[in-house]
Design a protein that fits this description.
The chain is α/β, with parallel strands linked by helices. Helices cover about 30% and strands about 25% of the residues. It contains ten helices and 24 strands. The longest helix has 19 residues. Flavin-adenine dinucleotide binds next to helix 1, strand 2, helix 2, strand 6 and helix 9.
Length: about 350
């Protein structure tokens, strides 16, 4: 490694791959290594489709990265200490700069979720849902984008299931009235039952228990109400928030470890008006790219440019033939323009394909 700057990217999801792709032309003299526990990249934004029985694209990471002179190590990262990543399944790797992009996973915060609930947070969760979901009533917990998309996909692909979407607020509550109405009408047309007054406090093998004491029977429960992040950053002594996400400055550099940068779901990143960017592919891609630029700028002795960021729209699929595209103001609040129906389904599909293309080196 003599003299070569070693950049290690931890995580080959949207953020990590976007970072690696950016480094190839900009850090020509550096040695770039990507580490991921999985052998392949699975389009995470399609895991609800996979869980509902559809096939989705998958790419072999080694075949993708090695021809681009990116060294790939398949191993699970256990700790970061003294500029070294301790790996399980491969020799440890040393770095001069590290981009931390370990993403997020299911959050088993509520009693019984880890033991009894299905999930679509990871490819393994989705595979399990796809192969072992029983016939009968499926309760999808969470009225956020993932819960809505999964409920629609299950209702469309599995006519033998009855789907109940359960949340403490109406589905897509943060969108405009027009977008919310379309989500509700479409879910109802697909046969999804909706309950928006329910706070789940426990999941058991055959039911969910609500805060008001009532019990809802379920052949299967799928948890989509919030994601957690890997414990690695906290365990390794990096400054993290209450959820374990890496705290970063305006250049995405860890506030405690100057050689570590963080991007995507595993990072706390300030957005427009100082508000935190949300966990989204729409955040992971630009922040991964930006973290790479910040590393390269400092390597060249330059100050990194400022992260400029805003969301333009949010896309929610409602099965394969419908959807909602909500255009957003600069402060992330919903604007007046909303696309629905087949146009929205087509638009979302182009965005999902574009996201995979943007990550692919
Ligand atoms: C069903 C579903 C639908 C979604 N739909 C949308 C959408 O429509 N639009 C949108 O913007 N967002 C969507 N999201 C959110 C989006 O998928 C995430 O925000 C995005 O994947 C985050 O990217 P990331 O690179 O930060 O992390 P990930 O994509 O989670 O990648 C992290 C990588 O790190 C690896 N890793 C984790 N721990 C370790 C370890 N210890 N050692 C080695 N490797 C490790 C993992 O294997 C993984 O490859 C959806 C999410 C789900 C689950």
């Amino acid at each position: 490694m003599t003299g070569q700057h070693r950049i290690v990217v931890l995580g080959a999801g949207y953020a990590g791959l976007a970072a690696a792709r950016r480094l190839v032309p900009t850090a020509r003299d550096a040695h770039i290594t990507v580490v991921d526990a999985r052998a392949s990249f699975v389009e995470r934004v399609r895991l609800h489709q996979y869980g509902a029985g559809q096939s989705i694209p998958e790419w072999d990471l080694r075949e993708l990265l090695e021809p681009k002179r990116i060294h790939f190590v398949q191993a699970s990262a256990q700790a970061i200490e003294h500029k070294r990543v301790i790996l399980d399944g491969a020799p440890d790797v040393e770095y001069d700069s590290l981009i931390y992009a370990l993403g997020s996973t299911n959050d088993p915060g509520v009693q019984g979720v880890a033991e009894c609930a299905y999930s679509v947070a990871t490819p393994e969760d989705s595979e399990y849902l796809r192969t072992s979901i029983p016939v009968g009533r499926v309760v999808v917990v969470g009225g956020g984008a993932t819960g809505i998309e999964l409920a629609a996909e299950l209702a469309e692909s599995r006519p033998d299931s009855r789907v109940l979407l359960l949340g403490s607020d109406e589905p897509a509550s943060w969108l405009s009235a027009r977008a919310r109405d379309h989500v509700r009408r479409t879910l109802e047309r697909l046969g999804v039952e909706i309950r928006s007054d329910a706070k789940v406090i426990e999941v058991t093998p055959e039911s969910v228990r609500l805060a008001d004491g009532s019990v809802v029977e379920a052949a299967a429960t799928v948890w989509t109400a919030g994601f957690g992040v890997p414990e690695l950053a906290r365990r390794s002594g990096l400054a993290v928030d209450g959820h374990g996400r890496v705290l970063t400055d305006e250049t995405l550099r860890s506030i405690s470890h100057p050689d570590v940068y963080a991007a995507g779901d595993a990072a706390v990143i300030a957005g427009p008006g100082g508000r935190e960017l949300r966990m989204a592919c729409a955040t992971a891609l630009p922040t991964g790219k930006y973290a790479a630029d910040a590393v390269v700028a400092r390597l060249a002795g330059r100050a990194p440019r400022e992260l400029r960021f805003r969301y333009f729209f949010q896309c929610i699929s409602l099965g394969r033939r419908d959807g909602v595209i909500q255009f957003l103001h600069a402060d992330d609040s919903p604007g007046r323009t909303v696309l629905t129906g087949r146009t929205a389904a087509w638009f979302k599909e182009q965005i999902v394909r574009g996201a995979a293309g943007a990550a692919r080196p």
